[in-house]
Amino acid sequence: MDEILRAEGISRIFEDGGLLGPKRIVRAVDDVSFSVYKGEVFVLAGESGSGKSTLANLILNPAEADSGKVFFGGRAVDGASDLKKVRMSCQMVHQDPYDSVNPGMKVADIVAEPLEIHGEGDKSYRKKRVLEALSEVRLEPPAEIAAKHPHMLSGGQRQRVALARALALKPGIIIADEPVSMLDVSIRAEMLELMSGLRKSHGITFLYITHDLATARHFGDRIAVMYSGKIVEEGPVDTVLLRPAHPYTQALIDAISEPDPGNLHREKIIRINDPPNDLRGGCSFRSRCPYAIDRCAEEPELEDAGGGRRVACFARLE
Ligand SMILES: Nc1ncnc2c1ncn2[C@@H]1O[C@H](COP(=O)(O)OP(=O)(O)OP(=O)(O)O)[C@@H](O)[C@H]1O
């Protein structure tokens, strides 16, 4: 399989607090490496605060990383001209359809904006491409929708406008950061089906960021589970979500599912809402982990566990 995107050792540290309380170092993204292959849906999953959005932003702005490199199509992104190419071939769809769409602009201008920013085609090409992109996200009739303002559309339609805008430049990869979490449950599946269709018809690769394992399973091929700035488990979606090897993945699954009498690990419920203790060094999940052993005071590496899976844990569940 062709690799389209690779992150290698990406880290980003923030300093938090300081005015009234003590300064706190937040390792928002901590030495993260992963590859995304052409045509797949790669999911980044984890609780709020695990570092997913920071990582997505670093992919588009590698210069803001404290360390690490981003590769597109095997080439390291280095310098302004590389960055321009990346910004054309990698587009982002954000969580909030109300936020990501400028209410003062007409749909036609919103979708055309990336074409204008990158100087793509003349006026007539842009007009044609806007109508095409609106059709691609099934906003029909496109000419009628193009003339509207966002407030005249439903939440689902607005998120489709955001997707059409991302498609305008015919990108190879779309980073979709919680694209359905603000939508009504009834229209989430529609939006995911639409993205699945685009992947098949246009060969678009997706990096899908979510805290929602149900949509991850529905839409994803492979998943990386993040905890506290690190990938703790990665592999095919069905393998990771049906037979989790990392106790944190198990905890995330337990948080959304009914107790399963067949689940060997059911007595060891981990309350994922417990705040992590700031234990120094070692596995950052160990203070919450019922399986923790002495060795967890060392930092576990993300190691090959067979079957396309990588796990960072000394006390794996299988
Ligand atoms: N600009 C910033 N300054 C200080 N801390 C930050 C900044 N941006 C993010 N953080 C911290 O980095 C950590 C990771 O945040 P991030 O938003 O990437 O997580 P997330 O998994 O995307 O969560 P969510 O789903 O809530 O957006 C959090 O502890 C957050 O508070």
Automatic annotation (TrEMBL):
One of its GO terms (molecular function) is ATP binding. Transmembrane segments: none annotated. Signal peptide: none annotated. SUPFAM superfamilies: P-loop containing nucleoside triphosphate hydrolases. One of its GO terms (biological process) is transmembrane transport. Residues 5-253 form the ABC transporter domain. Coiled coil: none annotated. Pfam families: ABC_tran, oligo_HPY. Keywords: ATP-binding, Nucleotide-binding, Transport. The keyword Repeat does not apply. InterPro entries: AAA+_ATPase, ABC_transp_ATP-bind, ABC_transporter-like_ATP-bd, ABC_transporter-like_CS, Oligopep_ABC_C, P-loop_NTPase, Sigma_54_int_dom_ATP-bd_1. This is ABC-type oligopeptide transport system, ATPase component. It comes from Cenarchaeum symbiosum (strain A).
